[in-house]
Amino acid sequence: ILNVEQSPQSLHVQEGDSTNFTCSFPSSNFYALHWYRWETAKSPEALFVMTLNGDEKKKGRISATLNTKEGYSYLYIKGSQPEDSATYLCASHSGSARQLTFGSGTQLTVLP
Amino acid sequence: EAQVTQNPRYLITVTGKKLTVTCSQNMNHEYMSWYRQDPGLGLRQIYYSMNVEVTDKGDVPEGYKVSRKEKRNFPLILESPSPNQTSLYFCASSATSAGEQFFGPGTRLTVL
């Protein structure tokens, strides 16, 4: 079983603040890293799927970076808005496995 | 509309009474999986399927069965549910095992 860790576990920020979270994963046999956004009472929705070391992806105010050699990914939110409040999940896929392993998530609350 | 459906959405049952949670996807995805979500533990994979008639255990398969007789359907079977199977269950599908996961709406199961 892969060990995928996310930090912090929860985070409260003020509207307009920028913030970031960390996902760490085993770097050996790495194949892909996923980020999902999970709002309360809804299903997780994919934000990014990244495979290459140094990869950076952006969707609106949200961006992510990937370092496969040291086994971490950062998710950044610029100018947080209350609608960004959600749990952000990362998941790692190793080439030798056939499954994604999820971290326990970072719960973000953006206060108006 | 591309989607993953699950039924039922909510279920309260008693220990030992067999139940099935259905999952269906209309995206012609080869890969399907079942997860359970428990507080503080994130999403844990129960079973997955790489294609029709190909299924394999995830991280927490005990007490569950699955089948994949058709590409679109992947039911989760609890032959003899127990209270420790009370959880929120998600079905997901993707084009490949490492690809973006599309999640169903979730099934909240309570076993008394």
Q: Which segments of chain B are poorly predicted (pLDDT under 50) over 5 or more consecutive residues?
A: none
Terminal CA distance of chain B: 36 Å
Proportion in β-strands of chain B: over 45%
Distance between the termini of chain A: 39 Å
| Backbone structural class of chain B | mainly beta
Largest interface: A-B, 23 and 24 residues
The largest sheet of chain A, given as strand count, sense and whether it forms a barrel, is: 6 strands, mixed
Tell the overall outline of chain A: globular
Which structural class fits the helix and strand makeup of chain A? mainly beta
- Unreliable stretches of chain A: none
Q: Overall pLDDT of chain A, averaged?
A: 93
| Number of strand segments of chain B | 11
Helix content of chain B: under 10%
Describe what you observe in this structure.
The complex is a heterodimer of chains A (112) and B (112). With 112 residues, chain A is mainly beta. Helices cover 0% and strands 56% of the residues of chain A. Chain B is mainly beta. In chain B, 0% of the residues lie in helices and 51% in strands. In chain B, strands 2, 4, 5, 6, 9, 10 and 11 form a 7-stranded mixed β-sheet that branches. The interface between A and B is medium-sized, with 23 and 24 residues.
